[in-house]
Every structure is written in C-alpha cells, then in structure tokens.
Amino acid sequence: MSVIEFQGVSKTYPIYDSPKGRLKELLTFNRKSFHRDFWALQDISFTVEKGQTFCIVGENGAGKSTLLQLVAGILQPASGSVSVNGRVSALLELGAGFNPEFTGRDNVYLNAAILGFSSAQVDRIYQHIEEFAEIGEFIRQPVKTYSSGMVVRLAFAVAIHVDPDILIVDEALAVGDIYFRQRCLRKVHELRSRGTTILFVSHSAGDVKAIGDRTLWLDRGRARELGETDRVISRYLAAMAEKDTSYLQTHLSPARQQVETVQAPEVVTSIPNIDHRYGDGRAEILGILITDSFGQRLAALQPLTRVVVRISARAKQYLARPNIGFMLRNHLGIDFAGTNTTREGVELPAMNPGDTYTVDFHVDLPALYPGSFSFSPAVADGSLLSYRMCDWIDNAQTLQMAPGDGLVYGYLHLPCRVTINTRLEKAPEAHVG
Questions:
Q1: Residue 378's closest CA among 259, 252, 261, 237?
Q2: Is residue 414 within 8 Å of residue 333, measured between CB atoms?
Q3: Which of 49, 196, 256, 395 fits a disulfide with 191 by CB distance 3.0 to 4.6 angstroms?
C-alpha cells in the first residue's frame, strides 16, 4: 500500500534581480514578468510503501528540503500531483513550528493541537515528551532562550510521540550531540519496527545505509538515481569523490614525492563477492585474499593479530600514478577504516596496458567488537588529493570478527596502561644556551 506518491512533480520559485522587479510585477497585476524561474524540482516520480524507510540524499541545494515540504503540505507543486495518506509529523527546519515567545510546554501543546490532538490526549503523552527531550527546567522557559541543540531535542520528542503514520526527519539532527543522536536513531528504528513510514534526509552515508530501505538521489532538482540503498549510496559517494577530484585538479597541483617502490610477485584472481562495482575502467581489480601472517587463508578475523590483505590489479590503459588500496566496513555499512599504497608512503611505478601488480597490506588488528567486516578493494590513478577511480568493488570479501578475551565497549578497545595515584610526568624544561 502506497502512503506517499509523487507523479511528475515539479516546483519552481521566482527569482528577481532586485526588489524593484517584484514591485513592477505586482503593479502590472502579473501581466508582465520581471523574474526568471528557478526549478527546485523537475519531474519527480516515486512511491513510498507503508512501513518503508525512504531516504533522500544529494548536495546542498539539490531540492531535498523542498521535496519534504511538499510531503508535509507546506508547499504545493507547480505541476504534477502529490498524494499523502496518513498523519504526518515533520522535523524539518530548526525550530520550525515553535513560537519563540511561548514556553517549551506551551509549544508541545500547540504543535500537538495542530496535528489534531486534544488537551486530554496531550496530557497523556506530555510526561514521555518531557523525559525524552531531557532539557530540565527549560521546558518551562521561552523557546527563544534555548540553544539549537535544545530546540532539536524538544522538536524531535514531540515528533515521535504524536503517533505519526509518516515521520519526516530532515538534517536537523546534525546539530544534536552524539548521545542524543544515538537515542534518536534508536527511536527511528523502533518506529520503523512498529510500521511507521519514515522519510529521512541526511548527509551521513552511514546513517542512510543503516536505516534506509530505498533511497532517492537528487541532483539539481532531478532524480539522478532511485532504488536499493547500498547501490544508490555507492554511486552517490563515487560521484562526490569524482567531483572533489575535478575540483582539486583545477585548483591544486601538489608536489610529487618519490619513494621506494614495491611490487609483489604473485597474482590473486578470486573475488568472493561483488555488491557494486564502479570506476572509469582504465584498470581493474583482479582479486583479493585475506590471510594470516603465514599466508594461510582466513575464515574469520581474530582480535590482536596480524592479517595480510593481498590485492591484485591489472592496467588496461596507461596509469601515471597507480594507487591500490582497500576500505574496511562494519556490519552497518559504515566505512570503518582504510588505506592505500600512497597513504602508506609507497609510490608504485607507472603501469602500462597489461601490467599486473599485487600489493600486500600487513595490518595489525586491534581488539574490535565481534561483528562482520567487509573489505572493498580499489585501484585509482593519481595522488591522495587528486585522483581518478579506475575500479572499486564494494564488499568483495566479508569476514566475521571472533570474540576476544575481554569485552569491547563501543567499536574497539584502545591500548591502555592504567596507574593509580601517580603523578603525571612533566615535560623536560627547555634550556637556552
């Protein structure tokens, strides 16, 4: 069952060169136009099913907030149709819908009333809202005295407790602290499990991958990609990397530093898995192999051990500055760590068509939490600041991290030495001769 449906939706805004143009247009009763149209959205079509988490990504100015405002009913489309079925609770702009002169408590009742709640209904959920917001006595102070983080806390607390059929969350959570963001994301997961439809906008690829069922990539008001989240995010990140590279090539010319080159003698030709592959095709990844320090293939990762990540790549065209590396991702799809030959101070010789290089990365694993980790190998041409991606394979090999001897709090355990009741060492004093 579709709860949101966009069919050929476009939205324009009039742009005037000066305030005089707006006045002239009004004086002619709009018979003469003194503006040009800015297309915030152009011919957007998609559907969102009940209980689905639908994410929207794109650069600033791509049209994400305009799309959400159309769903919320704040704006009307210039053409096309928007159909929304269900109660919508929206967390769009910071403090949107709050009266700065009213107290936080007054704004809770005001926002709930706009959504059709009676005072008696709000009374039943008010304590839960206050406890989730955790702003203490400020709940009885005017909102104009709040910090941006406090406004977000209260706005999100209201949005999730009014029993929405559709929850809209824009980038507002970006101003929240880590503790509150984690609570919010857990609440989003809870609402998702209860069948709430969620529209989520974020610049955090990790957050989108963690909760998104489907994702729409907007680019200058147009739908660039729509579909399964991992695929869309991979292409979006690749495009952003390519754009950054183009910018750096135009504006920067880093000095080239020569270092000793390394070339391994063997070739790996097995790629266990390919979730997504992209690049300009001037070189290709032939294989990846994860072994222990003795060259034995690993079936699982062990904390506090050394592993060898072996990657083979072959050039199809000339590469002036080949760079081979990998990205390590956790089970949430978050890029956890990564490296490459250039990052490690190894400059590979230029590759001619047909040349094959094999690189071994000797990695000392820390004490990581026991989850699954995937390795994504890549080969590029250029420096760390300016490069062209030739071939990237998402999640080519995934291995489980075995439990270690001790508990891991968070993502990893940092090497640590504990002393009790000792003085900190002082830095030696500088002597002037």
A1: 237
A2: no
A3: 196
Beta bridge partners of 407: none
Please provide residue 33's backbone torsions phi and psi, each rounded to the nearest 5 degrees.
Answer: -100, 130
Given a contact cutoff of 8 angstroms between Cβ atoms, the answer to whether 381 and 403 are in contact is no
Per-residue pLDDT at 254 = 44
Closest CA to 200 of 87, 54, 332, 64: 54
Q: CB of 155 within 8 A of CB of 176?
A: no
Would you say domain 277-404 falls under CATH 2.60.40.1840? no
Q: Show me where the domains of the chain are located.
A: 2-237, 277-404
- Residue from 148, 379, 387 nearest 244 by CA: 387
User: Which residues on neighbouring strands pair with residue 307, listed in sequence order?
Assistant: 292, 363
Question: For 106-110, 209-213, 256-260, 335-339, which range has the lowest pLDDT when averaged over its residues?
Answer: 256-260
Residue 373: band (very low, low, confident or very high) from pLDDT cuts 50, 70, 90: very high
Residues 383 and 236: their CA atoms lie apart, in Å, by: 21
Residue 239 in 3-state DSSP?
A: helix
By the 10 Å C-beta count (0-12 exposed, 13-18 middle, 19+ buried), 345 is classed as exposed
Q: Evaluate whether 2-237 and 277-404 have a shared fold.
A: no
CA atoms within 13 A on the CB side of 367: 12
pLDDT tens-digit profile of 154-211? 888 888 888 788 888 876 665 556 677 777 778 888 888 888 898 988 877 777 887 8
Q: Are 344 and 372 in contact (CB under 8 A)?
A: no
For 34-44, b/e burial (b = at least 16 CB within 10 A) is: beeeeebbbeb
Beta pairing partners, 216: 56, 226
Using H for helix, E for strand and C for coil, what is the string for 2-35? EEEEEEEEEEEEEEECCHHHHHHHHHCCCCCCCE
Q: Of the candidates 318, 360, 366, which has an alpha carbon nearest to the alpha carbon of residue 341?
A: 360
User: Rounded to an integer, what distance in angstroms lies between the CA atom of residue 389 and that of residue 11?
Assistant: 35
1.25.60.10, 3.40.50.300, 1.10.390.10, 3.40.930.10: which CATH number matches 2-237? 3.40.50.300
* SS3 per-residue string spanning 277-346: EECCCCEEEEEEEEEECCCCECCCECCCCEEEEEEEEEECCCECCEEEEEEEECCCCCEEEEEECCCCCC
Two structure tokens written together for 189: 């997961």
* Residue 391: predicted pLDDT: 95
